[in-house]
Design a protein that fits this description.
By secondary structure, the protein is of the alpha/beta class. It contains 16 helices and 17 strands. Helix 3 runs antiparallel to helix 11.
Length: about 500
């Protein structure tokens, strides 16, 4: 048989359709490597990716900094003041508040568990009168800039599924995360740095065993160029950002041009978007060799700014350092910065490690809000602070052993706050019952929060979809309502 005829007979439908898309892939590649100014003038987002139909309407926010607190901060000790919880300290939780609620295996049935008063006192702060505990004095100072959501609730009782649900809309790994969805839809404001950057940190000497899984910033079924780029906490933020001895930048450029030409041949043959991703990522890596060292060099920051973020700001890998890096990233056009800080899992360390956790995160979180505001960036930068769920208003442990007091996982009510990016400042939304156990008013499900976030960025969450395995997927799955009351 003629080899060409044999090849055609063996060609699968998928291969045929994939190779038929070569023209589209080549056009996309051309836009990546050669910024066509006429296209850019017509659609500014086209310069660095993004869908031509987005944003769907005028956005209030252009970028996001998500200060994700792994392990679940205790809402009743930080932001959700409940005088009755103080009054009933040490008494069994009323069964009417529990019903058939499911808790983690560490609690099992909540019947008979003893209520635990807040460890530190609360006060009303600022002109807004927001309740903030003594654990968070710096956050208290910026309370009038914050929009508290005190009626969040979720569906998972364990960390990894709940974190993944908060970040991707699904408890099982495999779906695109928020940063991936937003950079897929909106593209980037820069081609010098990744549009989605992740940094992690953990409080020193914590007993929290939380792990940072890569799927917390994964691209899922979206093309892999939309996954988050993790910056390291020691040494160079990115591996191989410096050329090895004997390799000049000119030589590197020549090598990349040759590799791109080889990859282009394969792209022309197969039309595989992952080949286009590989080419664009090589290009991004080359540009990052110039942009990342400048980004990581804090010598241009004033002593006043460094002091604002607090101790550890000049030590890579700390939460304070990552907060300052987040500001520098959004200044340079990064779309979505995700900081993940572990250590909030206080099953038996409320009176010890919770103090350390707050000291590590309170000042730098507040400093980020203040720093963005004074630079004119807070108006269109959405800052989010919160975890995957709350912690039980009842005790985990022995009431007579105060050094080992703890609280278990609590998905039925928790608090997060936002700042800037079009949300109402000095505003508290939603309420829990008088013990902080259940949502009592204006509940905000995780999908509602995701829908609202996308709305602030000019995206109709029902219209930003991606077809995979025969179905149109979106961040909010088939759920979610925009909470308009949160929007300024």
């Amino acid at each position: 048989m003629n080899p060409l005829q044999q090849h055609r007979q063996q060609l699968t439908r998928r291969q045929f359709l994939g190779r038929g898309a070569t023209g589209i892939g080549t056009a996309a590649l051309a836009s990546l490597l050669h910024n066509d100014q006429s296209v850019v003038a017509a659609n500014p987002a086209a310069q660095f990716g993004g869908l031509p139909s987005l944003p769907h309407f005028a956005p209030k926010a252009k970028r996001v900094i998500y200060l994700f607190q792994n392990g679940a901060p205790t809402h009743v000790d930080l932001f959700d003041w409940k005088p009755r919880l103080q009054e009933l300290h040490g008494q069994p939780v009323p069964s009417s508040y529990i019903g058939d609620r499911r808790f983690s295996t560490m609690t099992g049935k909540a019947d008979g568990k003893l209520l635990l008063a807040p460890v530190e006192p609360f006060s009303q702060r600022g002109e807004s009168g927001a309740w903030v505990s003594n654990f968070m004095p710096h956050t208290a100072n910026v309370a009038d800039e914050l929009c508290f959501v005190k009626s969040m609730y979720t569906e998972q009782v364990n960390h990894a599924p709940a974190i993944n649900f908060m970040l991707s809309g699904a408890e099982m790994p495999g779906r695109p995360t928020m940063g991936a969805w937003l950079t897929y839809g909106l593209g980037s404001d820069t081609d010098e740095l990744p549009s989605f950057v992740v940094m992690t940190s953990i409080t020193k000497d914590t007993s929290c065993g939380q792990i940072f899984y890569d799927f917390y910033w994964g691209n899922g079924f979206l093309p892999s160029r939309f996954q988050g780029v993790k910056f390291r906490g020691s040494g160079d933020p990115v591996l191989y950002v410096s050329n090895p001895n004997g390799m000049s930048r000119e030589n590197r450029r020549g090598w990349l041009d040759d590799i791109a030409a080889i990859n282009q041949l394969k792209l022309d043959e197969y039309g595989d978007p992952e080949i286009a991703t590989r080419i664009s990522q090589y290009e991004m890596s080359f540009k990052m060799q110039a942009s990342v060292p400048e980004l990581a060099d804090l010598s241009s920051e004033s002593r006043e700014t460094l002091d604002l973020y607090g101790p550890g700001v000049e030590e890579p890998g700390t939460f304070a350092h990552n907060c300052l890096m987040a500001r520098r990233l959004v200044e340079r056009g990064c779309r979505f910065v995700q900081l993940m800080h572990a250590g909030w899992d206080q099953h038996n360390s409320l009176t010890t490690e919770l103090y350390n956790q707050c000291r590590d995160t309170d000042q730098s979180s507040a400093a980020l809000v203040m720093d963005l505001k004074r630079r004119g960036l807070l108006e269109d930068t959405l800052v989010i602070w919160g975890g995957e769920f709350g912690r039980t208003p009842f005790l985990q442990g022995d009431l007579n052993n105060r050094p080992r007091w703890g609280r278990d996982h609590h998905p039925y009510a928790y608090t997060l706050w936002m700042a800037g990016g079009g949300v109402k400042p000095g505003f508290s939304y939603g309420e829990t019952d008088d013990l902080g156990i259940n949502v009592a008013e204006n509940g905000v499900h995780v999908h509602d929060f995701q829908a609202t976030l996308m709305h602030l960025l000019g995206i109709d969450h029902q219209r930003l979809t991606y077809k995979f395995q025969g179905r149109q997927f979106r961040l909010t799955d088939i759920h979610g309502h925009v909470i308009n009351e949160l929007i300024a």
